[in-house]
Amino acid sequence: MVVVMSVGATAEDLAVVVETVRSVGCEGFVGRGVSRTIVGDPARLGMMNPKGHRGVAEVAGTTLLRGDAVKPRTSPYACQGPGEKALKILAAVRAETGLPVVTEAIAPVPVGLVASYADMLQVGARNQQNSRLLEAVGSVDRPVLLERVDPSHGGGRRDLVVPPSRAAGADGPIVDVHAGDRTMRRRPGPDGARPGRAGPDHPVARRCAGPDGSPAGTAGLMERPTPLDGGVLIVGAGLIGTSIGLALTASGVSVLLDDRDPGALRTAIARGAGVPFTEGDRAELAVVAVPPDEVAETLCDVQKRGLARFFTDVASVKDRPIAEAVKLGCAMDVFVGGHPMGGRERSGPEAATGDLFRGRSWVLCPTAETAPEALAAVESLAAACGARPSILAPEDHDRAVALVSHTPHVLASAMAARFADAPASFLALIGQGGRDVTRIAAADPVLWRAILSANGEAVADLVELIAADLARTAADLRAGPASVDAGAAVRQLLSGGAAGHARLP
């Protein structure tokens, strides 16, 4: 529960509230708050209701309202912003809240028109060299806000917002309201103004809700507590677990490590992936970094011991481990299946690297039971590791990885197995192509047996299809050059391969 005091609340008023909270068996945590700016999400401004926004000012203690009205992309129906319609909305919100408003000026919309509605004009980062626009803005009697960087839109990543903003001279609280992907819009924390932290009729909830009442944006302080501030426990100090630990510690997150293999644990700790877990330690999030066939039992054990508030795994198969966890009675509302799409042909903590997931997809597989707070915590984990969170149903995930990961591993192993008895003089001729095709076959066979077993049906379907293609190709090849030239199998295989590869992102 969040209790918002009025701006003029006294120390005595605060003491009464804290005592009331304690009287019902809860603990009160007091946040003094800061002066804030609320940024109107440009993607939603054209649909804002000018009524009912006084509550936003009261809740956030704001002194200034920014909303982009003429900037491209601010309209849900066109490439350009709503223009004067949105400027009128800003004026109406100013009348409702008493807050001065700032909005961006951009050619070819007349600067004088924008200035007639706004109290302050903004010039975007990409217009800093537009001398005509700067001259026009300077000719009107309005203060000017020069946006020297645009880190949020530039990369779409939370971890790249604060550093360039600070480098550009920002020295206050950094606030963002976004309706972008989940990594940008779910920014939890005690100071976050989120629909999930208030009733549906709360003014902040109304502001952040979409037309159907679903969350459309989040207002959150970039340097306020996140779900990872309570620390992360990683159970399993192999390649993936240690790589996560290295990425998190580099981001300033406290990491506890546990592994039944003392040697692996010592190596991971020595490499700086975290500190050893001891009984009595607790974390906000536990990462189960074990093979697929061990996920369910390990998850239940960690949950029964109360080692964390939220839980995730990193196994490359999702459907079967989740079903097994349900059967064992694991708490599924606080668990989110996860799979970082990064790896190496080498295994163990010695092969770990802190940038293993940088720029990679990190698949999250929530279920109908998943609590929003649990999903937000795991999204924060992925973002802190430099990955791009994406959402898939468990069964869809397994079909996808069968195609892009598991079956390619089978084929690489099948080809590499031909090298086992080949003459050394033959192998001495191998070039980069042969190495590329078989590189992943060097991975841990024990781990991969567990992976393929857990996703056997989907992989078997693809292996059978590919085997049929290869059988037809072999038949054409055996028939001789004339058959190869005239036959369809070889031509289809090669042209289909080129077309498929061209589709890869």
Summary, kept brief:
It holds the Pfam family PDH_N. It is an enzyme of class 1 (oxidoreductase). This protein is an alpha/beta fold.
What can you see in these coordinates?
The two termini are 44 Å apart. This protein folds into four domains: 1-32, no CATH class; 33-221; 232-396, NAD(P)-binding Rossmann-like Domain (Rossmann fold, 3-Layer(aba) Sandwich), CATH 3.40.50; 399-502, Orthogonal Bundle (6-phosphogluconate dehydrogenase C-terminal fold). β14, α14 and β15 (388-391) form a beta-alpha-beta unit. Residues 40-52 and 177-225 have low confidence and may be disordered. It contains 21 helices and 15 strands. It has helices at 11-23, 54-60, 84-97, 111-117, 131-138, 151-155, 162-167, 182-185, 203-208, 239-250, 262-270, 295-304, 319-327, 372-384, 394-417, 424-427, 432-438, 445-454, 456-478, 481-486, 488-502; strands at 36-40, 62-67, 101-104, 120-123, 144-146, 175-178, 218-221, 232-235, 255-258, 275-276, 283-288, 308-313, 335-340, 361-365, 388-391. The strands form three sheets. It has an eight-stranded mixed β-sheet, with helices on both faces. Strands 1-2-3-4-5 form a five-stranded parallel β-sheet. It is globular. Helices cover 42% and strands 13% of the residues. α12 packs across α13 (319-327), α15 (394-417) packs across α19 and α19 (456-478) crosses α21. With 505 residues, the protein is of the alpha/beta class.
Summary keywords:
505 residues; alpha/beta; Rossmann fold; 4 domains; 8-stranded mixed beta sheet; 5-stranded parallel beta sheet; 15 strands; 42% helix
